[in-house]
Amino acid sequence: MSVSWTPGWLTAEGVPFTLKAGAHEWRGVRPTDWAAVGDGLRTAHENLRRMPVRRIVEAVDAVVDLWGKRDFTARRATVRDAALVTGMSEETIDHALDAELGNLRAESLLAALTRELGDPEVLDGFRGGTTAVGPRTVLAVFSGNVPGLPSRSLVRSLLVKASVIAKIPAKEPHFTAAFLRTLHDVEPVLADAVVATYWDRDDEAVLEAALGQADAVIAYGGDQACAAIRTKVGPHQLYEEHGHKLSFGIVSAEYAAQHGPAEVARRIAADCSDFDQHACLSPQVYLVQREHARSIAEHLAAAMRREAQDSPPGTIDAQDATVLQHRRLVAEWRAATSDDSEVWAPDGLEWTVVLDDALMPLSGAGNRVARIVSVPDVAAAVDAMRPFAEHLQNVGLGAVGEEFRRTARELAVLGASRVSAPGEMTKPSMVWRHDGQPRIAGLVRWCDIELHPELDRP
């Protein structure tokens, strides 16, 4: 099955491309006539504009209802292929899709539209003297290997009635086209407003050709990749960026006493195991108040083992395995020279728990390494995160009462865009303002009627 999606109206021949993962190959087609793509998307956009926003919500909900069933044929094929290219287990990918797709049900979409726009139907025309107009075409450059991740920006764009050029991620190329094929079965007008394909990161000619057809750009990737795109975005184009991010957890003494070390450990294990810890929302470190740090770490080893049994970790390539083994060696050396450090790990690389009394440099990431760093208090935990404020995204805050409210505000000022409970770090809703900005409202411009007698007419 092709990893690209081109609507039936795009009759011009394209150039084939091949994406590889080990011995496996997947093929698709990339357009060459980007002027024809732009013309077709303009027509598709006009058709999309005539569709009521609630009908768009209903269509997405119908697709998600199908994809929400684990035995749905398109989902099973996508999960199998995604496991081959990402190295994740099928169970882990299924958990990831459950989390991502669960946010795209009608109730969640309408809640997000209402929070950001007030009245979703301002996208259909004037309501109370105001209307919101989305871009004609969004260029969305996706990156990363989190299955289902492109669905968020893809659906947000369609909700504001924008057509989309989507660059699929090489590290997980299967979901987007498969999702769009189902969308076409449910509501062809929506799928016909999307072209999904792939080009190499250093293929500036194709990037600039695609940019030439867009009046809004959404970029995912590392800081360097995003910067390269940012320099090419024109002043007339809206720009949204999702660059390199880091996430942390905090556990206060009162929270640990209230829930008990075993339950806190279970929640931390869930945060560190989902997506094999490869998502930006996954914690790199949990900072735990000192009197409970060792007890939680001891329980965490058992909790990580249970997570690995229930949702097996994926395979790790040779380079990542070397990095992980080096991280373990450094942690074991620290443990050998300090009474406040220890490492728990199986013979294999399925999971690792590290207890330390200092926040060491964040070398390497992912692959289910649960790092517990003991701190004297919650204020010290916040201070330990300050050097990473520029990239701070998500904090699992285990605190209660006034300490919770005070710390949440401090984290917001520091740079966090999301604060959740431990155990819920990898489950953001569509209502969350992704990376701190309104991602639906950020795509629209407004027009207001004022000082006009027709406004008051029934």
TrEMBL record:
What biological-process terms (Gene Ontology) are attached?
Answer: bioluminescence
Q: Which InterPro entries match?
A: Ald_DH/histidinol_DH, CoA_reduct_LuxC
Key words of the record = NADP, Oxidoreductase
Does the keyword field hold Oxidoreductase? yes
The positions making up the signal sequence are none
Reactions accelerated catalytically: a long-chain fatty aldehyde + NADP(+) + CoA = a long-chain fatty acyl-CoA + NADPH + H(+)
In short, the EC number is 1.2.1.50
- Any one Pfam family match given in the protein's UniProt record, by short name: LuxC
Q: Name one GO molecular function term.
A: long-chain-fatty-acyl-CoA reductase activity
What family classification does the UniProt entry report for this protein?
Belongs to the LuxC family.
User: What is the designated name of this protein?
Assistant: Acyl-CoA reductase
